[in-house]
Amino acid sequence: MYKILLNSLLLLLVHGQKPGWEKEKNTHQARALRSRDLKDVASLSDLDHFKSVLQQILKVRVVDTPAHRNVRDFIIKQMEGLRWNVYTDAFSEDTPLGMKNFHNIIATLNPDAPRRLVLACHYDSKYYPSTRKHKNKFVGAIDSAVPCSMMINLAYVMHDHLQATLQENAQQEVTLQFIFFDGEEAFDTWNVNSDAVYGARHLANQLEKKSFPTNNRAGTNELHRMDLFVLLDLLGTSDPIIPDYFPKQSGKWYEQLQSIEQRLSRENKLLQHDKDYFRTHPWYGANRIEDDHVHFMKKGVPILHVIPTPFPHVWHKEKDNYSALDFATIDNLNKIFRVFVAEYLHL
Fold this sequence. Notes:
Layout: H1 2-15, H2 20-26, H3 35-42, H4 47-57, H5 66-81, E1 85-95, E2 98-108, E3 115-122, H6 141-157, H7 159-168, E4 174-181, H8 198-209, E5 226-232, H9 247-266, H10 294-298, E6 303-306, H11 327-344
Parallel strand pairs: 3-4, 3-5, 5-6
Antiparallel strand pairs: 1-2, 2-4
Helix pairs in contact: 4-6, 6-11, 9-11
C-alpha cells in the first residue's frame, strides 16, 4: 500500500495530479446488497444492547464534570472492546464558564486504510445553570445520546462482519471511522467560532495541519482521507423528516439512504413505517443549520447531515429524555445505517 501511495505522490509532484487514493474516493460507488444479504443485515437488530448502551450515556453529561468523564470512559471502553483503534483528542479552551477540558474520541476500524467513511455525533449534553429551585435535568436523549448509542450498537452488531472483512483484506482502501465530538453545545450564546462546536472546531484544525502521508510534499492532509462525513443529530423521536441538505456535494449518498429505506420497506423489514424519513423536498435553510460539520465543510470535506427538520419538539427541553423516544423509529434508522455502511464498504 505504501509503495502505491509513494508512486501516486510522485505522479502528483511531477504532473500536478491528485494521489491515487484521493482520486479514488471521488469516484467511490456503493455496492448494493442482494435481497438475501439485505435481510441478513436488517436482522442484526439488537434493541436490548442498544438500550443498555443508551442507559449508560443518558445522563447529565456537561463538559468537564464527573458524569461527563464517566460517559467518555464508557464510550472508549466499548469501542476498544470491539477491537477498534481508539485515541482521544484532548485540549483545553476558555469558555464563558472559564477554562474547560475537552476530549474528542476517534475510533477507527482499520487505521492503515488511506480513506475513511466517517460517522459522527457529539456526546456532551447542554449546560443549564442549576438553582436552589431547579436542578439541571437535561440528559439530551436525542441530543445526542441516541446517535452515540446508534453508532456503538452498529459496531457491536456488525462486529463479525467488519472484522471478517478486515482480516480478508488487510489493505483496505476505505475503512469506517467514528468520531464522538465533545463540546458541541454552547455554554452561553451559540457561536460556531467561539461558544459552540468546541471539539469539532479543534479537531478540524488539527487534522488539517497533519500531513498524510507523513512528510509528503503533495499538500494532502488527514482531512483528505475523509471520503464522506455523516453527522447524526437529534434522532430518536417518531416520524422524522430528514431532507437532503447538501445535494451538490453528497446528493448521491442521500439518494443511497433513500434507496435503502425503500428496499427495506419493500422487504417488510421496517417497523410501523408509514412515511419515508428521507424525503426530498425544497429546503431553503440548509446552510443555516449549524452543527459539528461546519468547520469540516469549510475545509472541503463532503458532508451528509442526518438531522430532522423541523427539529423534534423536545429539542433543548427537559423533556428530551427516555420517554420522548420511539424505539420502532430508532430500530428502523439503525437498519438503514447498517445497510448504508455495508454497501459503502462493500461488505
